[in-house]
Amino acid sequence: MAEFNGDDVQGDLFSRGFPKFNEVYYFFHITSGKEKEFCQKVKTLVSGEEKHISSINKVLEDWRQVDAAAARNRTLDDPAKKEWVSTVNALIAFSKPGLDSIQAGLTSAGRPSLDLKYLSLSDPVFDMGMADDGPENLNDPPVDSWDPLFRSTTIDGLLKVAASDSQIANDKLEQLKQILGYPQLITDIEGNSPPSLTNSKLEGNVRLGKHHGHEHFGFRDGLSQPLLEGINSDAAIKADPYMKTDQNVITVSAKPPELQDGVEADPTRRPPWMINGSFLAFRKLEQDVPRWNDLVNKFAVAGCKSPAHLAAKLMGRWPSGAPIAKFPDEEPPPGTPLDNNWHYKGVSKYNCPFGAHIRKVNPRTEGGAVTTARLIRNGIPYGTDFDPANPPTDPNDTRGLLFAAYQSCLENSFQFIQRSWSNGESFPVSNTGHDAISGQAKDRGLLNTTLHGEDEGQLKPGLGQFQETCTMKGGEYFFVPSFSALRDTLGCD
After folding, report:
1. What CA–CA distance (Å, rounded) separates 352 from 356?
2. CB neighbours (10 Å) of residue 380?
3. Backbone dihedral angles phi then psi of residue 154, each to the nearest 5 degrees
4. pLDDT for the residue 160
């Protein structure tokens, strides 16, 4: 898009996102009566020679250094000689109440209005917030069951810091908090979210060793991301041409993408300062690994050969990331190149159920909703690995995914995918059932996912009804402003 500028867009808003082994999410509240001073601090984040928030261009340069070091390391036999590239990057975002507080600060400084009144028309989901939208429209659990962090003090803003290790990430976070006037101008949220016992903060880490790059159910994560011309390499787009995506699907543009059928929003009503920003859907998803293991151990009644076979059918991929649509019988040998260029035309519903997670949320058909119902997913696992030989006894010893998804329109992407596709029992065809991984049933009921035998006849009862294995424990919608908006509109002197 003509207005896109890699120095103006925050750096997590593309398929690779921040390089990281650790990531910290810090949720904060803007102190009442201190809004003007806070706006002055916001401007300092991006105004000096050293930018404290990372742009896409800065992150792309970090990736060039990381990739070059990785290439050199592959030629070395001695692990002690391998290079380690230290990186740290940060993002800032605001909820609707946070923007309201910023508006109060700008008003007291005699600055122009942000025209937030139009958000109820342009972006009604962001305007209402996840606590209202989730239980009403997404079958989320009631707010009183969310972790305390997400149901106590109003969350106004988010600092997301990613780094090559936890100490670097936390040191950067403390620096940013001081720049923003902690604890006078911003304060902690009075609530925690297990396994963290610290108010206001969540921390995730990339799983290492044989689990590297995999989430807690054992699958390689972060595949099939939207690919953007001018940011992603030509080779990446050639390897997965289906995922080539217009920039205006991810960042706000003066020319927004076409809306899905039934979406009630008017992105043309957005104020101009929002261009090059993006909306972030953050959700803490707790994964019940023992319940997942129990579910896939029912492989025989599901017409599968093994627990791994049923797990691959429910996910749509084998743990390596190989799509079951291309490898229906068994996982390909280690070292097999990942082929992410495929579609579901002609794929047997026995081999890959219509309700498989990746088929539900990314049906890979041509044109229409699938080209705009896309989002950049740059979250991270949290919690320790589950050891079935030594199951945890501490109820706070939980694990899951810190889900972070960016898009230019929540109604068009995240909300549409969750409500109409993951939860929709008749998508993509009637009698599909729920997405077995991320689907949520109405009134917190049981899930069902239709499976078929080799003759493509429906298995009855198959898995029958079953409890969800991922539980939403809280979250919020945020807006991720551009550098120019932070400097010239949300910040003040």
Report:
1. 7
2. 27
3. -60, 130
4. 98
